[in-house]
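Aim 2 progress update. The chain analyzed this quarter is reproduced below.
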Amino acid sequence: MLVDVKVPVLAESVSEATLLSWHKQPGDAVSRGDSLIDIETDKVTLEVSATSNGVLAEIIKQDGEDVESDEVIARIDTEGKGAAAAGKPAPKKEEKAPEQQSLVEEAAPVADPRLSPAVRNLLEEHNLDAGNIPASGKDGRLIKEDVLNYLEGKKQAPAPKQETAAPQPEAKAAAPEPETRATPAPATPPLPQGERPEERVPMTRLRRRAAERLLSAQHENAILTTFNEVNMAPVMELRKRYKEKFEAGHGVKLGFMSFFTKAAVEALKRFPIVNASVDDQDVIYHGYFDIGMAVSSPRGLVVPVIRDADQLSFAEIEAQIVDFGLRARDAKLTIEDLTGGTFTITNGGIFGSLLSTPILNPPQSAILGMHKIQERPMAENGEVVVRPMMYLALSYDHRIIDGRDAVQFLVAIKELIEDPARLLLQI
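Predicted structure tokens:
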């Protein structure tokens, strides 16, 4: 009996998805729950598993193809009629083994069912061992880009030797006449030596969707950015004093993000318009505080949402942030994790950014940008002192948020961070 393998039902806001790479090939035996392929949507990566025991009889949609919700992409033979086909490749490995010992070493990793057809072909074509190539795919899986990067690195490795060895005799010969040879050089600039490789790689669906949303945000919103700076010394001192007890008591480290999340919530309570959004000609005020956290993942930027952040403790916020980071890395975030949000915080400081202008995450009307902590000389009470300072940036939609509200909102965050006791007293 043939059973259809279908694309999972996607969210209402997601119309299409892209197939990444098949983990099984026609003729391979599969068990119920085995991962067959990963599907990338605009927001998350979904895993399609086998719904029955049997043999993968047919693959209808290949790697990289776009598919729709509930579309048939493969078929499983539950009676196992294709089992004989699954055993055919084995004798070939044994026949090749006596011919050349190195082929035995290469055959084992190529037969790994987790490798896509494109990866297998590259490994066979260049006689490579998959175990020697760093893998960056999900669950340590080797992907096509890993093999191409490895090959490119091998090609570029000998290039410096050829370039430095060949010109040496000419350089010595040219030494006696430096002035006469210097004049015509600008008229005939030397052509680049060696290989100049280029590779055209299609954007991932996540990257394409992010690009569309960023362009849309710039075209449809009146974005302005206001800046301020905050003295991080009080928070850093508080963190240093209690970080060990905090971690021992809650099982999670005390970071800066929980302080800024709490400060943002208190500032949003004082300035509800910053927590609002535009819907056609209406302004929607949100009576809850769902804070988005911009997270960098191997597939691009994602913004999971901390729900009802005003009701969570510092430890609960830190735990959710750690969980988001791990699941973003492993492509395990769900559509529900990425849906909604009334305000977003992004921290470019972890990458060394000193100052930036973050772009809105529609339909939200504001986003807070954190940056690198850097010691700078500051004037305090007529004296110059060195303080660990951070620049803050608030980008906002000027259609509904006035400059006065935006500036005062950012000042409120500054005051709360510079005096963390206010976060506990809510003043």
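The longest strand covers residues 383-397. The chain has two domains: 2-83, 206-425. These observations will guide the mutagenesis experiments scheduled for the next reporting period.
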